[in-house]
Amino acid sequence: MKPVIALVQGDAAGIGPELLAKLLAHDEVRDAANILVISDPGVFAMGCRTAQTDPALHMISDYGHADFSLGRPNLLDVTQCLGTSALDLAEITAGEVSTKAGRTVLEGFGLALDLAKERQIDGLCFLPFNKQAMHQAGLGTEDELQWAKARLGYDGRASEFNVIDGMWNARVTSHVPLREVADRLSVDGIVASIELAHQTLRVAGFERPRIAVAALNPHAGDGGAIGREEIEIIRPAVERAKKQQIACEGPFPSDTLYIKVRDGRYDCALSMYHDQGQIAIKLLGFEMGVSVHGGLPLPITTPAHGTAFDIAGLNRANVEPVRRAFLMAVEMAANRRADSA
Amino acid sequence: MNQETAPIAITMGDPCGIGPEIVAKTLAREAPTSRTVVIGSARVMENAVRQLGLDLGVRTVAELGVVSSEPGVLAVWETSDLVDLPFRGQVSAAGGKAAYDAIVEAIKLAKAGSVSGIVTAPINKAALAAAGVKYPGHTEMLAEFGGAERVAMMLANDEIRTVLVTIHCSLKDAIARADYPAQMSAIRLAHEGALALGIDRPRVAVAGLNPHAGEGGLFGQEEIEVISPAISAARDEGIDATGPWPGDTVFMQARQGRFDVVVAQYHDQGLIPVKYMGLEKGVNITLGLPFVRTSPDHGTAFDIAGEGIADAASLETALEYAERLIAAKRRLFKAKDKSAQTEEAKKWA
Predict the structure, then answer these.
(1) Least CB-CB distance to B219: which of A177, A255, A283?
(2) Banded pLDDT at B3 (limits 50, 70, 90)
(3) So what's the ipTM on this one?
(4) What domains does chain B contain, in order, with CATH numbers?
(5) Residue B171 to residue A181, Cβ atoms within 8 A
């Protein structure tokens, strides 16, 4: 049986609704999985109007009524399911941050995560959210990954991966001041990050993912002359992970590491800090990239780009990154089910 | 001798590395566009030419004014009469000494105006140390002998130019050293360097230190406390400096043509994009010196030295950049001369 993939509506003021409609117009997409669209039907219809498409759907108000035998995506009406009021589209302006739009996003995303917790869905792909709108609507956590962890009742290690053209990147530290990075590195923490990368890429279909671990200092510390973290922390972590039969190497000087990954000598880079990996990823073409939340009980993916407020409602958004994000969720969900079967 | 006729000096680098080989390959190009003189050992260069099977004669010169630009001739200004050639691919005191002597001589010639600029082939840090040289690299020697108050490195390729606020130090030290004076110095040198490359009114983008350039103080204070005040001060000096921009998007924007030069806070922030965009096209330009100096963006590659497979593209690019910088400098001098003459003429009018 095909995996059930939830497609969660993005921010109503951005390009999400348009992309959702465009995505569902693809036969390849419709055939790839049992799709459960989780959306406010009014917002969904608005996206269809913008994209000038009208994909056939099976409308339901409760997941118990889901029926994939018809060969159509099911659309779960968030407002009916939760008994909330529909978003008044007259109050939404394309390209403007709206607290109400943020609330609708949280309702839909929350509903999807609840279904995931009940093991009703195998994977989740969401259209671009607007961070500010979500914060205004009461997100209450640093980002949607933390929010998802709390909602799923999952307190294990999870991390965001960036994927572009088969190049994966994960990071040991993320949104922290650069001066705190060195102090936050530990052998245990790096081993755990390597393990998480290994597991996540395995779920994504890599039999034995090859992981390249970045150094912290220029020239990987030049043998200890300009920094000792490579000798004291990173190398011991790599050695320990190797003993666990993980195909990892490093620490590599970060000014050439991403070239090795881009050229296919490794599948995944493990960066020590935010900008290290993001500089390379963004030069490669971030706008086509996919973000994967790895380590959670189910794969969660989303296009790496944002709500693109500047072109919202204009039918100019490129569906390709969403298509890639969706197919990644399908692949990971299928592999995970095969693994646990 | 004046700048107009002086040749460009190319130091041979560590004789045990790929330096002599890539210098010979570069100078064997069919149509030399400028006059060059290799500073180092004629025997080392002869050996490299022979091993590569190049149709190139090596000639020792005693006077730089007579260096010609005839194709097929490699002129050498001898600084080492090495009798026994040191082994290729190995660290040696003799190699370090020969490399060092060539650099010191090249700087002397450049300061005297006997050469119009310097292009340096790669040297080896360990070999310099073995030879008892107290300077770990070119930058330190140039700062010491070059007579510059402040020196910075600009890395450039076809798409991106960047100047580093801090260079070879640990990330922790880089954060400590990226203070206000270091920001000011890097911004000014980035501006001057871009002007020297012939860019009018250069747009200087300054990268932040922290993720998302600190996100308004959420992920670090350096942008607010140090970098932004330096940008404001530079703007007051008439420099078109902007930022601090998030480090992960500023290079992309520069590549798209929004900026002419990016000031990077630490080594890898600048080197990741430059190398990513094309290692073979990368070149280092030393800013702040009274003369032009460029170098390729790679090391001695001891592992492949003597095999004839080393790629000379980066050295060729370094030479092209040196030519460009020297030409821009000459134009600048001429323009100044002309405006001085015009001023003079006005007085008498």
Answers:
(1) A177
(2) very low
(3) 0.85
(4) 1-147+285-349 (3.40.718.10), 158-277 (3.40.718.10)
(5) yes
